[in-house]
Write a structure and sequence with these properties.
By secondary structure, the protein is mainly α. It has helices at 3-24, 28-52, 57-79, 81-85, 92-120, 124-147.
């Protein structure tokens, strides 16, 4: 076992397992936020496994997950808009996830992607890693904004309430 696989195993236990628990239990807001965080952790795990097993095709899977994960969260945000924006989060875990999701993405994505870029060296592989990192951070920022209720899906800015 090399260091990349050890980091992937650690992230699997510390990052992915609690998000699976959060997605399987609790109110709707916590479930959707945990699903969004699980996408982030799963993508980072795939990147670490790609380097650990020397399988560049795993980076392609992480790229697809980085695109589809936040899109899925936005779909859930649209379909569950009444439950997500109708009342404030009373659940302590959901409030903590709401405050921590963007900082987690901004901190952990570079902690994983930058060492992988150094290991990959300049070239196409590094460009893919940087694109995945940018998609993860950008997608997490947008989906967190929707889930936190700061932006109600389907409503125009400044539209009057009926």
């Amino acid at each position: 076992m090399n260091g990349w696989l050890l980091a992937a195993a650690l992230l699997l236990v510390v990052g992915f397992a609690p998000t699976v628990w959060g997605a399987a239990s609790g109110p709707v807001r916590r479930r959707v936020m945990a699903q969004n965080l699980a996408t982030l952790a799963g993508c980072l795990i795939m990147l670490l496994l790609a380097q650990g097993f020397a399988r560049p095709s795993y980076v392609d899977l992480a790229l697809v997950l980085a695109v589809l994960g936040p899109a899925g969260t936005l779909v859930y945000g649209r379909l569950l808009a009444d439950e997500l924006t109708g009342r404030p989060a009373r659940d302590r875990v959901a409030r903590a996830l709401d405050r921590a999701m963007t900082p987690l993405a901004v901190i952990f994505v570079p902690l994983v992607v930058l060492p992988l870029c150094v290991a990959a060296g300049p070239g196409r592989a590094m460009a893919k890693l940087l694109v995945v990192g940018a998609l993860l951070v950008g997608g997490n920022v947008v989906s967190t904004r929707v889930l936190s209720g700061r932006h109600a899906p389907g409503r125009e800015a400044g539209a009057a309430d009926d």
